[in-house]
């Protein structure tokens, strides 16, 4: 079972080189070194899942570092407090103090120059209601320029870990959170003369499209379409500023970079910059703040999926008439439930639920919904081989569906004479999707099939 990791944004200056330790099971020790004006050195001892201890260190040792020991696994860090400031001969801000707090109520010494415990500079605090800190990231050269943390949140139903990178930008506006999806299909952006005013994200969830939008639509509109699932967003470079005509800080530009090397830019590159990116991960969702424009932006990242072996999918010809509106559920890994509504002498409604990976995907309803419909639910290791019934050629519609065959059961062929008989399916294949045409009745129906593998 995967876990959710919250990545809190860096606090401090913009100097030095960026580093990122990612996440571990816990932190065992912290060593901190300082000079007369700043934190110059930091070292972490992390514990991996298998118990191995790994060390990561940054900055320059100018004095003997002091250590703070955490009684792992019974104790963990829950908060980090500190400050950052400009010091003599340094153009950018650096970390000037650090304090670590634990789940047992213990507090480390105040690391960094301080007079009677008083520190100078802008104060910060990393904490989330006692959640466990399991990793650090930051910037450093010959001192520690900036610091951020990873917190572990609740476990997920997904088999892989998910990273939630905190939203950055303005502090005003309503909070919104799209959550995570399988991928991003398209991004639609509106901008005025100063800022990003509107974002619409088209996500992919189990092969189906879901659109969510934020901000106020208007101004210049643009679109960025990805070749999902073959292409994904690797990173988003974002700038934010307080335009002179407006009172609050807003997002001013967005630069998307994809796995295929494509880049797409929107807005005006003014103000401060941050980057939404997690190494070796793909962007799968957004969150942020909104008002008359986009005030802040954050993102969800999931591991890059290994390419799955390509199984040839075949779209078999449909049966029935040509009336109604076309529909197409697409292709999945299998069928979980079949729902059929019969109105007098014709099929008026069908709906299919599918399996995609470990998820259950509810298909759309086709035809005229009825209060009651007959249902067939397939078991976890059961798959659909064929579906049969009768066509009413005079009405151009499906009259009856009553013959279902799976790898575990077979209803047999109907002995009723309801018109022209049909069977959907192909030997050696299983049904993994449906398509057709419908109005207030089901006019036609067809199937997608894939070969049955030896493991099934």
From TrEMBL:
- Highest taxon in the source lineage: Eukaryota
Q: In the UniProt record, does the keyword Signal occur? A: no
Q: Residues in domain Jacalin-type lectin?
A: 5-153, 162-303, 313-451
For this protein, the record's SMART domains field holds: Jacalin
How is this protein named in the record?
A: Jacalin-type lectin domain-containing protein
Q: Which keywords fit this entry according to its UniProt record?
A: Lectin
Which source organism? Brassica oleracea var. oleracea
Gene Ontology MF term list = carbohydrate binding
The similarity comment for this entry is: Belongs to the jacalin lectin family.
**Pfam families associated with the record:** Jacalin
Q: Which InterPro entries match?
A: Jacalin-like_lectin_dom (IPR001229), Jacalin-like_lectin_dom_plant (IPR033734), Jacalin-like_lectin_dom_sf (IPR036404)
